[in-house]
Amino acid sequence: MTTIELDDGRVESVSVIEKVERIDAHQHFWRYSATEYGWIDEEMTALRRDFLPSDLKAAMASAGIDGTIAVQARQTLDETRWLLDLADGTDAIRGVVGWAPIAGEEFPGVMEEFDGRFKLKGLRHVIQDEPDEHYILREDFNSGIRTLVDSGLVYEILIFERHLADAIHFVDTHPRQPFVLDHIAKPLIAAGQIEPWATLMRELGRRENVWCKLSGMVTEADWRTDPARASSLATLNPYLDVAVEAFGPKRLMAGSDWPVCLLATGYAQWFDLLRSYFAGFSETEQAAIFGGTAIEVYGL
Q1: Rounded CA gap, 224 and 92, in Å?
Q2: Across the chain, how many H-helices and E-strands are there?
Q3: SS3 category, 216
Q4: Of residues 25, 50, 57, 99, the one with CA closest to residue 257
Q5: H/E stretch holding 245
Q6: How confident is the model at residue 16 (pLDDT cuts 50, 70, 90)?
Q7: Residue 135 dihedral angles phi and psi, to the nearest 5°
Q8: Contact 175/145 with Cβ under 8 angstroms?
Q9: Of the four listed, 129, 157, 230, 251, which is most buried by Cβ atoms within 10 Å?
């Protein structure tokens, strides 16, 4: 609340919503090589080049974004160090979600290297690519996660929708650890399938130590044959509806998944789509989704 003086001399208290910085909660950088980025196949030629902070700057300006969270795209400590170096030299990169060998016996010792790297805000492992479908429940991995409690680091859950049941058990094992679910758990949007994903998302959303990123959706739709439809509200509305129902506006955060999103839509266009969807929400809710929640969860 603040006070204002009216023309007749009276003083009234009014509610003022402070401007919250707009944060892209999920984007990537890389120096492209075919060896290190084998997942970028022949249908993704637009991604076969370097994507660096200088490339993102204009896109951020076009979308009215103030800062970003840079997220790992390779599972190497070298990339984590590189992202942190980029962040140290780029004010707009407010935080980094890196990779470290969480399941390794050396994990606690490895993390000592990052003491004092204050822009390291979280860690992620590419669970979705593990041959072991139940990797997220492995004891060595969970042992590493237990060491993160009270570290101030978030753990980001990157899975396909088929891993959601295991993810719920995983989260229940670590009730004091903050988790962020990437890409709304990659539902089968291209197939138009919503169950059992929706039911499991509602169940996961009951865990108050889990937040959810609205990101990576356009590339789960049929972007190869119809990119315009893949990036339309008509296609994405049912999945956004479930995410809102499951987590509520205060535990959602908007992310671009740039440059991967460029396969189906532009950077500004993605944020325009989300703003259109949330146009009827309160100013407070919109401020949380487009920046406030990321600032709080990652301690930006």
Answers
A1: 31
A2: 11, 10
A3: coil
A4: 25
A5: helix 233-247
A6: very low
A7: -55, -35
A8: no
A9: 157
Location of structure tokens 């090589």: 33
Percent of the chain with pLDDT over 90: 88
Query: Which DSSP category does 72 fall into?
Result: -
199-225 pLDDT, tens digit each: 999 999 999 999 999 999 999 999 999
- What ranges make up the beta strands (E) of 233-283? 252-254
**Bond into 196 cis (ω within 30):** yes
- Domains located in the chain, CATH noted: 20-298 (3.20.20.140)
- Amino acid symbol at 144: G
Please check whether residue 13 is in contact with residue 3, taking contact to mean a CB–CB distance below 8 angstroms: yes
Residue 101 CA to residue 72 CA, distance in Å, equals 13
User: To which residue do tokens 């059992």 refer?
Assistant: 196
Please, are residues 69 and 119 in contact by the beta-carbon 8 Å criterion?
no
Instruction: Give 11-60 as a 3 state SS string.
Output: EEEECCCCCCCCEEEEECCECCCCCCCCCCCHHHHHHCCCECHHHHHHHH
Report the C-alpha gap between 53 and 42 in whole angstroms.
25
Buried b (16+ CB within 10 A) or exposed e, 91-123: ebbbbbbbbbbbbeeebeebbeebeebebbbbb
Which residues are paired to 30 by β-bridges? 51
**154-157 and 179-181 strand pairing:** parallel
| 15-24, 49-58, 118-127: the lowest-pLDDT one | 15-24
Residue owning tokens 């992202």: 83
What does the block give as tokens for 101?
A: 């060998």
Q: Is residue 94 within 8 Å of 69, Cβ to Cβ?
A: yes
Rounded to a whole number, what is the distance in angstroms from the first to the last CA of the chain?
Answer: 24
